[in-house]
Design brief:
Elements (H helix, E strand, L loop, with lengths): L7 E4 L1 H9 L9 H12 L5 E6 L12 H7 L7 E5 L3 H10 L6 E6 L2 H7 L4 H17 L4 E7 L12 H17 L6 E5 L7 H14 L4 E5 L7 H10 L4 E2 L9 E2 L2 E2 L1 E2 L3 H5 L12 H13 L8 E2 L4 E3 L7 E3 L6
Parallel strand pairs: 1-2, 1-8, 2-3, 4-5, 5-6, 6-7
Antiparallel strand pairs: 9-10, 11-12, 13-14
Helix pairs in contact: 2-3, 6-7, 8-9
Length: 327
């Protein structure tokens, strides 16, 4: 199947990079430097830049200046500036800036263990929060037409995510949108912790497409185990038009720091097979082995690894960047 005619780049590097680099050093990147980076990225031609995170300043102090960054940016015509918000308080903060492109959306998590660690809510509580946020979107004139599912392909805490659960969660997103008079038109499936492989991409996307053929699907992918480009190719074979690159090459971040990969599950059950891997150099192979070795600590405990992420330079095409190991 031929690739899609166009690909929309959604640059999320600033938000993930500011959050990651500020772990333990919330003042490492100044507000002025954040503003300069966002404005420089806008000059590259990307149409959407995600740079703000309206979460608790106590839990993520490095993002406490999100309002100040919004206020300091000189918006470039044709560029959408966005942020994330995990609850109703964060959503209201984002709307109040008056600088962001707000879209009515509902986000759920396929893993309850991850939801408890990241949002401090179980799946039922998270669903209730999404309903509350959907009402805020509606009351502010934003129809709920977008949905998202985090940890859709696997979880460091729960392991494999059953496909049936993914379908159930997507059905719940449709219900949330319908309850406030919206219709779900777009869905983001996020490989939050880097578990995806090409076959899993095809199987999951195929199942969602079979049940909701009119739904537009985009993916949020990482290159944690060297499968980023292969997953993008699998995405192309399903003609998915949108992906989210990260200019900073950083892995998704929890409120308390980097994800840790379980010792055996990622090494054995999800180690890339030759048939799934692209042709790589010896240096790339050494990087993959280093990432696998770093996942197993000397005492058998999990270690933090995986800052790899697919990078799409505007003029240079695809390249993978993998920086395993703890700093």
């Amino acid at each position: 199947m031929a690739p899609p005619e166009n690909v929309t780049l959604v640059e999320v590097g600033p938000r993930e990079g500011f959050q990651f680099e500020g772990i333990g050093k919330p003042d490492k990147i100044s507000t002025a430097d954040k503003i300069r980076l966002v404005e420089a990225l806008a000059e590259t031609g990307v149409r959407t830049i995600q740079f703000a995170s309206f979460v608790s300043p106590r839990q993520v102090p490095q993002m406490a200046d999100s309002e100040a960054v919004c206020a300091g940016i000189t918006k470039r015509p044709g560029v959408d500036y966005t942020g994330i918000y995990l609850n109703d308080v964060g959503l209201k903060r984002a709307i109040a800036t008056g600088k962001l492109t707000i879209a009515g959306r509902a986000y759920l998590t396929a893993s309850e263990a991850f939801s408890l660690r990241n949002q401090k809510r179980n799946l039922a509580e998270d669903l209730a929060m999404q309903r509350k946020m959907a009402a805020i979107f509606r009351d502010n004139g934003y129809p709920v037409e977008h949905g998202g599912l985090m940890a859709a392909f696997g979880c460091n805490y729960e392991g494999d995510i059953p496909l049936e659960r993914v379908l159930q969660m997507v059905a719940s997103l449709h219900e949330v949108a319908a309850e406030v008079g919206g219709t779900l038109k777009r869905l983001s499936l996020a490989d939050t912790m880097g578990w995806a492989n090409p076959e899993l991409i095809r199987r999951t996307v195929g199942a969602v497409r079979a049940r909701w053929p009119a739904l537009r699907i985009n993916l949020h992918l990482h290159d944690t185990r060297g499968l980023g480009i292969a997953n993008v190719y699998a995405r192309w074979s399903r003609r998915l038009p949108v992906r989210r690159p990260q200019g900073g090459g950083r892995q998704c971040v929890q409120r308390r720091g980097r994800f840790s990969l379980p010792r055996t599950r990622h090494r054995d059950r999800h180690r890339p097979r030759p048939a799934d891997r692209l042709r790589t150099s010896r240096r790339d192979d050494r990087r993959t082995r280093s990432a696998e070795q770093a996942a197993q600590g000397r005492d058998g405990a999990p270690r933090t690894v995986g800052r790899g992420c697919l990078i799409l330079p505007i003029s240079a095409g695809f390249r993978a960047r993998d920086r395993p190991g703890s700093p």
